[in-house]
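Input/output pair, single chain:
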Amino acid sequence: MAVTAGGTPYVESSDLVANYPGVSLALANHIDTIGNLLQIVFASTSTATTSSSSTYANTALTATITPSATSSKVLILVSHAGVNKVTGNTYAQLRLTRDGTAITGDWAGNINYTSSTSPLITQAGTNFLDSPAATTALVYRTQLASGENIAQVTVSNASSLSTMILMEVAG
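Output:
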């Protein structure tokens, strides 16, 4: 049995449950797994995706994970580099999908471009904790659309590296 800094005893899953008759085996086996990372998937791309439409289109940034339990959550960390407008007064709209269905709203709409003729290149990222309740392969992907005054926007411009990290967290 371990003891906290405050002196409170607690049972670890490595303790012999037989030594603690008041603790069930199921509880002792579960104590150390709550909140643990079970797997990490990393994906990256430097393939540019360009849009001149308000309709969302898939980018090249995608990753697949298969959760080990329906109670698991998936923490998604996305960093899109080289986000820019090519022409006109517009802004990039990005969202995250799971198996083709949007799971976030537009998370890059604040990257607003003025009517300046010079392109503005920046980075856009998001973090999202998903509760898919599945043990099948899940495909996460970002999608891009052009905002107001439909003009051309790009992600991973000039071969900039965009990344996605998926982490399965025990529930």
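The domain at 35-169 is CATH 2.60.120.1340 (Jelly Rolls). Residues 22-31 have pLDDT under 50 and may be disordered.
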